[in-house]
Amino acid sequence: MVPELQKTTVRIQQPERVMGLIRAIKEQGGSKLQVISDFDMTLSRFGCNGRRCPTSHNILDNSHVISEDGKKKLKDLLHHYYPIEIDPNRSLEEKRPLMVEWWTRAHELLSQQKIQKGDIAQIVRESDVMLRDGFNELFDQLHKYNVPMFIFSAGVGDILEEIIRQANVFYPNVHVVSNYMDFDDNGVLKCFKSPLIHTYNKNNSVLQGTAYFQQLSTRTSIILLGDSMGDLTMADGVPSVENILKIGFLNDKVEERRGKYLDAYDIVLESDETLDVVNGILRFILMET
């Protein structure tokens, strides 16, 4: 059915259930399907040749437009808060206020750096960001079959849109909700627009008033792609869900977090830097039989 599911990186707790889900989505057809995806470390790579790849925030933090002092402060925040973000022993209730604190402090620091809107394209070009292998096929397939792709990101919207644009896959079926910069009349960053989106509030609370899912109310089959426990709620704004297949990329602390991921995601991809499995499933679903 989907040969890619035989890859050694794939772990599935309930194979029969997952196969049934994939078949049900195929029966409903492409006109009922939508994809909801995280961006950083889900569509973009976690690592390459043993080095970490940057997130959309990291791209900004590491760029030439940030002062050395600013870089140090942003790195200190990362070292303090990232272990909390991925700690399997802390509850989401405990993590949420701390994530708000982290994002708020990081955005305040960035807003002091006089970042120019006109610099964004160059910042992205000079970065080490990499989309996962197979991103072309993913975006091309969804575009070809008119399947809407909703990217729900706690990163920096202006940066991630530029990444997709430079990869030549920013098609009209792609819609992004993220943290966007607010520039003054001279094109200088003054602050970030609200609402603030962090790892653990990617749900209805920040989508109030977005008509996006309402317009897609007939799209009741969902493929959800994420890499964190916070990504599991990304489809909460969808008015009626008939079938949802959740695919999780487990990038870091694999042994320690495997159990939690297997309980939460239908398919878990361990240290897999490709979109092979997602593309294989989509090929099966969208192929006219």
Per-chain topology:
Blueprint: E1 10-11, H1 15-28, E2 33-37, E3 47-48, E4 51-52, H2 56-61, H3 68-85, H4 92-111, H5 120-125, H6 135-144, E5 149-156, H7 157-166, E6 174-179, E7 181-183, E8 189-192, H8 212-215, E9 221-226, E10 243-250, H9 254-264, E11 267-270, H10 276-286
Parallel strand pairs: 2-5, 2-9, 5-6, 9-10, 10-11
Antiparallel strand pairs: 1-11, 3-4, 7-8
Helix pairs in contact: 1-10, 3-4, 6-10
Pfam families: UMPH-1 (PF05822)
GO cellular component, one term: cytoplasm
Protein name: 5'-nucleotidase
Structure characterization notes:
It catalyses: a ribonucleoside 5'-phosphate + H2O = a ribonucleoside + phosphate; CMP + H2O = cytidine + phosphate; N(7)-methyl-GMP + H2O = N(7)-methylguanosine + phosphate. InterPro entries: HAD-like_sf (IPR036412), HAD_sf (IPR023214), Pyrimidine_nucleotidase_eu (IPR006434). By secondary structure, this protein is an alpha/beta fold. It has two domains: 3-47 and 130-286, HAD superfamily/HAD-like (Rossmann fold, 3-Layer(aba) Sandwich), CATH 3.40.50.1000; 51-125, Pyrimidine 5'-nucleotidase (UMPH-1), N-terminal domain (DNA polymerase, domain 1, Orthogonal Bundle), CATH 1.10.150. Helices cover 38% and strands 17% of the residues. The chain is built from ten helices and eleven strands. The strands form three sheets. Strands 1-11-10-9-2-5-6 form a seven-stranded mixed beta sheet, sandwiched between helices. It has a two-stranded antiparallel sheet with strand order 3-4. A two-stranded antiparallel ribbon has the order 7-8. The longest helix has 20 residues, at 92-111. The model has no long low-confidence stretch (mean pLDDT 95).
